[in-house]
Design goal:
Layout (H helix, E strand, L loop, with lengths): L1 H14 L3 H4 L34 H23 L1 H21 L4 H21 L1 H22 L4 H4 L3 E3 L8 E3 L1 H26 L5 H19 L1 H13 L8 H23 L5
Antiparallel strand pairs: 1-2
């Protein structure tokens, strides 16, 4: 009975030590409503009064903040993750020695010694420091996405922008604000996928492969920022009948801005592979 009580006592901190330390899944992120940045971890569920995340600029930035808060809390849990195993291991060894000295018998020492071994093995198996490094890299990527996604022009924030006078009749509808939301949300989902893959294997990406990807995305960004890209977008929109009087200028600005934003966000996403 004493042996059982000792084992149960020292196992309790592991059970209460936090899901992030012993989970191989990425941090859970709420994507339907904004969560409050109140500085408390875990972040918790959105309140009933919380704003719904809509597919627009405001919704995209709210989603980024949801990811930032959730990953920051996960990192804080993982940064202290070794204590979940190391402190109980030390307590188990000390408890076994003192219990034996107080007449608990050799079984107590054997049981608590096994408990210490279990905690030390768990520390290696769950690798909280390695997981903290992975989550820290993802948090860095999310903060990069937040920086790049900020400061969008009014041409993108206009939402649905219908244009008339289309060749052959009809109307073309550009939705730059929805396009922006899709770019930002897909970048966040890519970070989440990278974290999931890395946590399953507690592995790293090849530095040379990351460097090659960064070079390729840098070239893509250079092309998007080249004046020739603006001319190509303008020619494409003119080909379907848009003119200056039907919103051509605003359409060109929004589409060029989004074309340049895409590789910038991709470069941010790559940061989740480092570390």
């Amino acid at each position: 009975m004493k042996q059982f009580l000792l084992c149960a006592t020292f196992a309790l901190p592991l059970v209460l030590g936090g899901c992030a330390t012993t989970s191989f899944a990425p941090p859970r992120v709420h994507e339907d409503k904004a969560i409050a940045a109140n500085g408390r971890c875990p972040a918790g569920k959105p309140s009933d009064e919380a704003a719904a995340i809509e597919p627009d600029v405001t919704g995209a930035l709210q989603l980024v903040d949801n990811f930032r808060i959730s990953y920051d809390c996960a990192f804080q849990q993982l940064a202290n993750g070794r204590q979940v195993f190391q402190v109980p291991a030390a307590l188990a060894l000390a408890g076994g020695a003192t219990a034996a000295a107080l007449g608990a018998g050799p079984d107590a020492a054997i049981a608590t010694g096994a408990g210490a071994s279990l905690f030390n093995h768990g520390n290696s198996y769950y690798a909280p420091q390695d997981k903290a490094r992975i989550v820290a890299a993802a948090l860095d990527a999310i903060m990069c996405i937040k920086r790049e996604a900020s400061g969008i022009s009014t041409q993108v924030q206009n939402g649905t922008a219908p244009f008339a006078s289309i060749v052959g009749g009809g109307t073309i509808t550009l939705e730059p604000e929805r396009q922006y939301f899709q770019l930002v949300s897909s970048s966040l989902q890519s970070v989440q996928a990278i974290v999931g893959e890395r946590l399953m294997s507690v592995g790293s990406y090849s530095p040379s492969a990351i460097a090659d990807e960064i070079r390729a995305l840098g070239n893509k960004l250079d092309k998007a920022e080249d004046p020739a890209a603006s001319n190509a977008v303008q020619a494409s929109l003119r080909s379907v009948g848009l003119t200056s009087s039907t919103g051509l200028d605003a359409a060109v600005v929004s589409q060029i801005e989004l074309q340049q934003l895409a590789p910038r966000l991709d470069l941010c996403t790559v940061r989740a592979k480092s570390g």
